[in-house]
């Protein structure tokens, strides 16, 4: 059967240069394709919305240690590598139930004023940075989209303000997605998380670490210290998702002046705009692979036991079976269930926070700088797994 399934080479320059088109093209050939890449064994990718949604909630497919590229971390860090993302069943549910209350839509909305203050501080710096440059331009990725998520998640989790410049460096390494900087940052983040947990136990505050530390003190059977430290560093890493989402969103809006004008004219469209931006230019192109616990069939394609399977979000979120005129960017579109945050047990726990953060960031940026414009060529970094810009040069123009 595998010979009848289309195959995509992730190292193909055509795929690296335009993964959205590459994945969408094969969607109409088959609901399942095979992906190959140097150094990575073949894996299956689901390209249609209905099949992907079913796969992501199928208990016969589970995440595990093989879902992630291995990190070479010091021995003392190894106990903290077993995150919620690689757990399944009751073990995963137990930990998720502990952290999920901090990320409900209600909590995200209540956290909005604190996000607005962080956004405001970053925007205050942009005119000065632009004035110092020769052409009046500033890299919005480096000076806004990248530091914002790490500052927000540090505020939520409970990282002291004095430590946040160092965590900004960690966040930049995580957002880069690869390289020595990322490998160095992982153990540093673990050690910083352990120190933050110790502070949360000794001097509780109004933050997630303190809340979880109280559970640790009251009922160690529900949450161990190792699990808490692991949870903290995982949340910090996962909290970097809005970096590329915000950068992609600004790039997309500036490239669609009619849509940008409509959003400026009616800020009440922002929630729909955020949903459409996640569908259109969400950074995650492939979900974390799951492995088949037994022989399964997806979209009529048999997949043997032990095989890695991913959802091609780039194709799924432009499936014409679900989205009318999917190749059109439309901020007035009725939300139709995009899978930018995946689905099922491993649906992104921070989705509500990311939605609010993106809306706050875009709304404040567009209000503050009505003349915001691109200041040079931009291109997405060749990466079949993540839609991300290397830089986003803009001219802010006079502040409102």
UniProtKB/TrEMBL annotation:
MF-aspect GO terms: heme binding; iron ion binding; monooxygenase activity; oxidoreductase activity, acting on paired donors, with incorporation or reduction of molecular oxygen
Name the UniProt key words of this record, in alphabetical order: Heme, Iron, Metal-binding, Monooxygenase, Oxidoreductase
Q: Which InterPro entries match?
A: Cyt_P450, Cyt_P450_B, Cyt_P450_sf
A Pfam family matched by this chain, by name?
A: p450
From what superkingdom does this record's organism come?
Bacteria
| Family matches, as CDD domains | CYP107-like (cd11029)
Identify the stretch annotated as signal peptide in this record.
Answer: none
Q: Which family does it belong to?
A: Belongs to the cytochrome P450 family.
The name this protein carries in UniProt is Cytochrome P450
Q: Which organism is it from?
A: Nonomuraea mesophila
């Amino acid at each position: 059967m595998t010979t009848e399934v289309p195959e995509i080479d992730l190292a193909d320059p055509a795929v690296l240069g335009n993964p959205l088109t590459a994945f969408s093209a094969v969607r109409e050939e088959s609901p399942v394709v095979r992906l190959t890449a140097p150094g990575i064994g073949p894996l299956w990718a689901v390209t249609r919305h209905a099949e992907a949604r079913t796969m992501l909630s199928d208990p016969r497919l589970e995440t595990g240690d093989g879902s992630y590229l291995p990190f070479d971390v010091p021995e003392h860090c190894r106990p903290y590598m077993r995150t919620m993302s690689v757990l399944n069943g009751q073990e995963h549910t137990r930990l998720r139930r502990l952290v999920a209350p901090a990320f409900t839509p209600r909590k995200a909305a209540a956290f909005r004023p604190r996000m607005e203050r962080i956004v405001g501080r970053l925007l205050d710096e942009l005119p000065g940075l632009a004035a110092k440059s020769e052409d009046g331009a500033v890299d919005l990725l480096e000076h806004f989209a990248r530091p914002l998520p790490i500052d927000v998640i540090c505020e939520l989790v409970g990282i002291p303000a004095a430590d946040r410049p160092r965590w900004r460096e960690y966040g930049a390494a995580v957002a880069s997605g690869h390289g020595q900087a990322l490998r160095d940052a992982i153990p540093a983040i673990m050690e910083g998380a352990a120190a933050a947990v110790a502070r949360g136990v000794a001097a509780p505050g109004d933050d997630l670490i303190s809340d979880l530390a109280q559970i640790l003190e009251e009922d160690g059977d529900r949450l161990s210290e190792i699990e808490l430290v692991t949870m903290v560093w995982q949340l910090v890493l996962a909290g970097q998702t809005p970096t590329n989402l915000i950068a992609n969103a600004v790039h997309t809006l500036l490239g669609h002046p009619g849509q940008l004008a409509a959003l400026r004219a009616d800020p009440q469209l922002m929630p729909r705009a955020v949903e459409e931006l996640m569908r259109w230019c969400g950074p995650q192109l492939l979900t974390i692979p799951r492995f088949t616990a037994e022989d399964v069939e997806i979209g009529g394609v048999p997949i043997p036991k032990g095989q890695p399977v991913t959802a091609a979000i780039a194709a799924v979120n432009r499936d014409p079976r679900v989205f009318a005129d999917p190749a059109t960017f439309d901020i007035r579109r009725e939300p139709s269930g995009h899978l930018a945050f995946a689905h099922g047990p491993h649906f992104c726990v921070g989705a509500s926070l990311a939605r609010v953060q993106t809306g706050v960031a875009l709304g404040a940026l567009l209000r503050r700088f009505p003349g915001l414009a691109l200041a040079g060529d931009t291109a997405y970094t060749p990466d079949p797994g993540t839609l991300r810009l290397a830089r986003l040069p803009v001219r802010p123009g006079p502040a409102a």
